[in-house]
User: What shape does this take?
Amino acid sequence: MAGMMELNGCRIIVKEIAGGKMVLDTRIKSYDPIRKVVKVSAGSLDNRMEHAVTVIIFGPNGSLVEATGNLRKVIIANEVEIELGRSKNGEKRKHVRYPLKEKGYIESVIVDGTLIELQKPIEMETCNISGNGILIQTMAGSGTVGTELRICVKLGDTMLQKTYRIVRIQNANLKTEEYGCMMIRDRNI
Assistant: This one.
Protein backbone atom coordinates (compact mmCIF):
# COMPACT_ATOMS: atom_id res chain seq x y z
CA MET A 1 0.00 0.00 0.00
CA ALA A 2 2.98 2.27 -0.57
CA GLY A 3 1.93 5.71 -1.67
CA MET A 4 -1.64 5.21 -0.38
CA MET A 5 -1.34 7.19 2.86
CA GLU A 6 -4.48 9.29 2.27
CA LEU A 7 -7.38 6.91 1.79
CA ASN A 8 -9.93 8.70 3.98
CA GLY A 9 -13.14 9.18 2.03
CA CYS A 10 -12.11 6.84 -0.81
CA ARG A 11 -14.66 4.35 -2.14
CA ILE A 12 -14.07 0.70 -1.16
CA ILE A 13 -15.89 -2.42 -2.36
CA VAL A 14 -15.58 -5.50 -0.13
CA LYS A 15 -16.28 -9.08 -1.24
CA GLU A 16 -16.14 -12.31 0.79
CA ILE A 17 -13.58 -14.82 -0.44
CA ALA A 18 -15.80 -17.76 0.55
CA GLY A 19 -18.79 -17.63 -1.79
CA GLY A 20 -17.82 -14.40 -3.55
CA LYS A 21 -20.67 -12.36 -2.00
CA MET A 22 -20.25 -8.58 -2.07
CA VAL A 23 -20.72 -7.38 1.51
CA LEU A 24 -19.94 -3.64 1.40
CA ASP A 25 -19.75 -0.76 -1.06
CA THR A 26 -18.94 2.28 1.03
CA ARG A 27 -16.38 4.97 1.85
CA ILE A 28 -13.32 4.64 4.08
CA LYS A 29 -13.74 6.49 7.38
CA SER A 30 -10.08 6.20 8.38
CA TYR A 31 -6.86 4.47 7.34
CA ASP A 32 -3.96 3.50 9.62
CA PRO A 33 -0.90 2.99 7.36
CA ILE A 34 1.17 1.52 10.23
CA ARG A 35 -1.31 -1.29 11.00
CA LYS A 36 -2.58 -1.36 7.36
CA VAL A 37 -6.15 -1.17 8.61
CA VAL A 38 -9.11 0.72 7.14
CA LYS A 39 -12.28 1.48 9.10
CA VAL A 40 -15.69 1.67 7.44
CA SER A 41 -19.32 1.75 8.54
CA ALA A 42 -20.68 -1.72 9.30
CA GLY A 43 -23.84 -1.06 7.32
CA SER A 44 -26.03 -4.19 7.25
CA LEU A 45 -23.36 -6.82 7.81
CA ASP A 46 -24.41 -10.10 9.34
CA ASN A 47 -23.38 -11.01 12.89
CA ARG A 48 -20.24 -12.98 12.08
CA MET A 49 -17.27 -11.32 13.71
CA GLU A 50 -14.74 -12.00 10.95
CA HIS A 51 -14.70 -12.49 7.17
CA ALA A 52 -11.79 -13.27 4.83
CA VAL A 53 -12.27 -10.69 2.08
CA THR A 54 -10.90 -9.08 -1.03
CA VAL A 55 -11.22 -5.34 -1.50
CA ILE A 56 -10.82 -2.85 -4.27
CA ILE A 57 -10.12 0.76 -3.30
CA PHE A 58 -10.62 3.66 -5.67
CA GLY A 59 -7.78 5.78 -4.37
CA PRO A 60 -6.65 9.34 -4.90
CA ASN A 61 -5.92 10.53 -8.45
CA GLY A 62 -7.83 7.63 -10.02
CA SER A 63 -5.56 4.92 -8.59
CA LEU A 64 -6.91 1.41 -7.98
CA VAL A 65 -5.75 -0.83 -5.15
CA GLU A 66 -6.78 -4.47 -4.84
CA ALA A 67 -5.95 -6.41 -1.68
CA THR A 68 -6.98 -9.38 0.41
CA GLY A 69 -7.60 -9.08 4.11
CA ASN A 70 -9.74 -9.82 7.11
CA LEU A 71 -12.86 -7.86 7.95
CA ARG A 72 -13.49 -7.67 11.71
CA LYS A 73 -16.67 -6.31 13.25
CA VAL A 74 -16.09 -3.67 15.92
CA ILE A 75 -18.92 -3.18 18.38
CA ILE A 76 -18.17 0.49 19.10
CA ALA A 77 -19.56 3.08 16.64
CA ASN A 78 -21.03 0.43 14.28
CA GLU A 79 -17.72 0.15 12.38
CA VAL A 80 -15.70 -2.66 10.90
CA GLU A 81 -11.95 -2.86 10.49
CA ILE A 82 -10.34 -4.42 7.46
CA GLU A 83 -6.77 -5.61 7.95
CA LEU A 84 -5.25 -5.39 4.48
CA GLY A 85 -2.85 -8.07 3.28
CA ARG A 86 -3.57 -10.53 6.06
CA SER A 87 -6.13 -12.87 4.57
CA LYS A 88 -6.39 -16.33 6.06
CA ASN A 89 -7.60 -17.90 2.80
CA GLY A 90 -5.86 -17.75 -0.55
CA GLU A 91 -7.67 -16.24 -3.52
CA LYS A 92 -8.28 -18.52 -6.51
CA ARG A 93 -8.47 -15.73 -9.09
CA LYS A 94 -5.57 -13.37 -9.58
CA HIS A 95 -7.97 -10.40 -9.77
CA VAL A 96 -11.46 -10.61 -8.27
CA ARG A 97 -14.35 -9.01 -10.17
CA TYR A 98 -16.49 -6.49 -8.30
CA PRO A 99 -19.95 -5.55 -9.58
CA LEU A 100 -19.95 -1.84 -10.39
CA LYS A 101 -22.71 0.01 -12.27
CA GLU A 102 -21.43 3.50 -13.05
CA LYS A 103 -21.83 5.76 -16.06
CA GLY A 104 -18.75 6.86 -17.94
CA TYR A 105 -17.40 7.51 -21.38
CA ILE A 106 -14.68 6.53 -23.83
CA GLU A 107 -12.73 9.75 -24.44
CA SER A 108 -10.18 8.48 -26.96
CA VAL A 109 -8.85 5.48 -28.84
CA ILE A 110 -5.24 4.57 -29.52
CA VAL A 111 -4.38 3.48 -33.05
CA ASP A 112 -0.82 2.42 -33.92
CA GLY A 113 0.46 4.17 -30.77
CA THR A 114 -1.29 7.46 -31.63
CA LEU A 115 -3.89 8.88 -29.24
CA ILE A 116 -7.01 9.99 -31.12
CA GLU A 117 -9.32 12.23 -29.07
CA LEU A 118 -12.96 11.69 -29.94
CA GLN A 119 -14.89 14.86 -30.75
CA LYS A 120 -17.92 13.29 -29.10
CA PRO A 121 -17.06 10.82 -26.32
CA ILE A 122 -18.84 7.46 -26.46
CA GLU A 123 -21.18 6.91 -23.50
CA MET A 124 -20.79 3.64 -21.62
CA GLU A 125 -21.69 1.92 -18.36
CA THR A 126 -19.47 -0.31 -16.26
CA CYS A 127 -20.66 -3.84 -15.47
CA ASN A 128 -17.80 -4.92 -13.20
CA ILE A 129 -14.21 -4.02 -12.38
CA SER A 130 -11.08 -5.72 -11.06
CA GLY A 131 -7.56 -4.62 -10.22
CA ASN A 132 -6.50 -5.08 -13.85
CA GLY A 133 -9.65 -4.94 -15.94
CA ILE A 134 -13.14 -3.64 -16.55
CA LEU A 135 -16.28 -4.91 -18.28
CA ILE A 136 -18.21 -2.14 -20.01
CA GLN A 137 -21.41 -1.94 -22.03
CA THR A 138 -21.61 0.58 -24.84
CA MET A 139 -22.99 0.99 -28.34
CA ALA A 140 -22.28 -1.82 -30.76
CA GLY A 141 -19.31 -1.32 -33.05
CA SER A 142 -17.33 0.89 -30.66
CA GLY A 143 -14.27 -1.35 -30.92
CA THR A 144 -12.79 -4.71 -31.84
CA VAL A 145 -10.55 -7.11 -29.94
CA GLY A 146 -7.19 -5.36 -29.60
CA THR A 147 -8.58 -1.81 -29.70
CA GLU A 148 -7.10 0.41 -26.97
CA LEU A 149 -9.49 2.80 -25.23
CA ARG A 150 -9.08 5.65 -22.77
CA ILE A 151 -12.01 5.20 -20.35
CA CYS A 152 -13.29 7.75 -17.81
CA VAL A 153 -15.66 6.84 -14.97
CA LYS A 154 -16.84 9.32 -12.32
CA LEU A 155 -16.70 7.75 -8.85
CA GLY A 156 -18.01 10.37 -6.46
CA ASP A 157 -15.29 13.02 -6.15
CA THR A 158 -12.74 10.93 -8.06
CA MET A 159 -12.38 10.43 -11.81
CA LEU A 160 -11.04 7.01 -12.83
CA GLN A 161 -9.15 7.54 -16.11
CA LYS A 162 -7.32 4.49 -17.41
CA THR A 163 -6.24 2.98 -20.71
CA TYR A 164 -7.61 -0.49 -21.51
CA ARG A 165 -7.30 -2.98 -24.36
CA ILE A 166 -10.40 -4.88 -25.48
CA VAL A 167 -9.72 -8.59 -24.99
CA ARG A 168 -13.23 -9.99 -25.59
CA ILE A 169 -16.67 -8.99 -26.84
CA GLN A 170 -19.82 -10.56 -25.40
CA ASN A 171 -23.59 -10.10 -25.22
CA ALA A 172 -23.70 -8.31 -28.58
CA ASN A 173 -26.96 -7.20 -30.15
CA LEU A 174 -27.90 -4.56 -32.74
CA LYS A 175 -27.59 -1.70 -30.23
CA THR A 176 -25.04 -2.65 -27.56
CA GLU A 177 -22.05 -4.85 -26.82
CA GLU A 178 -20.07 -5.65 -23.70
CA TYR A 179 -16.31 -5.27 -23.90
CA GLY A 180 -14.03 -7.15 -21.53
CA CYS A 181 -10.99 -4.88 -21.24
CA MET A 182 -7.57 -5.34 -19.66
CA MET A 183 -5.82 -2.33 -18.14
CA ILE A 184 -2.60 -1.45 -19.90
CA ARG A 185 0.18 0.67 -18.53
CA ASP A 186 -0.42 4.27 -19.40
CA ARG A 187 2.39 5.56 -21.53
CA ASN A 188 3.28 8.98 -22.80
CA ILE A 189 1.52 9.23 -26.12
Summary: The mean pLDDT is 83. The longest strand covers residues 114-129. Residues 164 and 184 are 5 Å apart (CA to CA).
